[in-house]
């Protein structure tokens, strides 16, 4: 039993999906392939029954995953100016978060987070240290796929705040000024608290799950 607060039905569904994906990758037998495809559908049925996600959309998303199933990697940047933290407002859900996103295949993690800040907020930054490595499935709302989140403390080099095709607003906020709602698929209060703590502590030790 996991010590996270992820519901058991989601843990089962994620494990079934991962086993089916890995099985499809290695199996060359037609009948085994059919069995793994059915497991994929069962995982989608479980999640669809418990959430607002449509069954067909889930099956499509699951079948798009190829190869051995591993956690995805999300990178986030803690960027400060005058002691205030850079946040962007996501168009997709209207919530605020630290700029970032999924790392692409071939990305160097630090370069990925630097690129995301430029694309989402209009600032050039340099990653300085890792604040924390988090299991993205420990706090609701839970990721559809298992994911790890890496939060970097970044130095602000230059640029001007600008929104993007993913963000509708860009601004800096003090620790007592954090706006609501947060985009909780992307940033939690814990990440923000650790970011401010790391800014104040030159000897900050990376936290991890």
Q: Can you characterise this structure?
A:
With 209 residues, the protein is an alpha+beta fold. The chain is built from 5 helices and 8 strands. Strands 1, 2, 3, 4, 5, 6, 7 and 8 form an 8-stranded mixed sheet that branches. A hairpin with a 5-residue loop joins strand 2 (84-90) and strand 3. Helix 1 packs antiparallel against helix 2 (30-50) and helix 2 (30-50) packs across helix 3 (55-63). The chain is elongated. The two termini are 16 Å apart.
Quick recap of the structure?
This protein has 209 residues and is of the alpha+beta class.
What's the alpha carbon Rg, rounded to whole Å? Answer: 19 Å
The unreliable regions are none
Structural class: alpha+beta
Could you describe the largest sheet, including whether it forms a barrel?
A: 8 strands, mixed
Average pLDDT over all residues? 92
Dominant shape: elongated
Sequence-ordered SSE layout with sheet pairings:
Elements: H1 8-26, H2 30-50, H3 55-63, E1 72-81, E2 84-90, E3 96-97, E4 100-102, H4 109-121, E5 123-135, E6 147-159, E7 167-173, H5 189-200, E8 207-208
Parallel strand pairs: 1-6, 5-8
Antiparallel strand pairs: 1-2, 1-4, 2-3, 2-7, 5-6
Helix pairs in contact: 1-2, 2-3
List the main descriptive attributes of the protein structure presented here.
209 residues, alpha+beta, 8-stranded mixed β-sheet, 8 strands
């Amino acid at each position: 039993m996991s010590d996270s607060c992820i519901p058991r039905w989601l843990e089962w569904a994620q494990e079934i999906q991962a086993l089916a994906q890995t099985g499809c990758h290695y199996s060359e037998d037609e009948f085994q392939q059919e069995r793994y495809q059915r497991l994929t559908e069962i995982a989608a049925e479980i999640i669809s029954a418990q959430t607002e996600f449509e069954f067909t959309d889930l099956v499509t998303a699951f079948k798009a995953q190829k190869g051995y199933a591993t956690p995805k990697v999300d990178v986030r940047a803690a960027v400060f100016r005058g002691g205030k933290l850079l946040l962007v407002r996501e168009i997709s859900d209207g919530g605020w978060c630290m700029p970032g996103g999924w790392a692409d295949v071939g990305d160097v993690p630090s370069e990925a987070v630097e690129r995301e800040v430029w694309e989402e907020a209009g600032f050039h930054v340099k990653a300085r240290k890792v604040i924390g490595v988090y299991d993205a499935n420990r706090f609701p709302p839970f990721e559809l796929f298992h994911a790890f989140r890496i939060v970097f403390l970044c130095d602000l080099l230059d640029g001007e705040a600008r929104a993007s095709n993913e963000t509708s607003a860009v601004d800096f906020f003090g620790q007592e000024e954090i706006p609501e709602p947060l985009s909780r698929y992307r940033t939690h209060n814990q990440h923000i608290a650790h970011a401010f703590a790391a800014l104040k502590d030159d000897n900050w030790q990376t936290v991890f799950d």
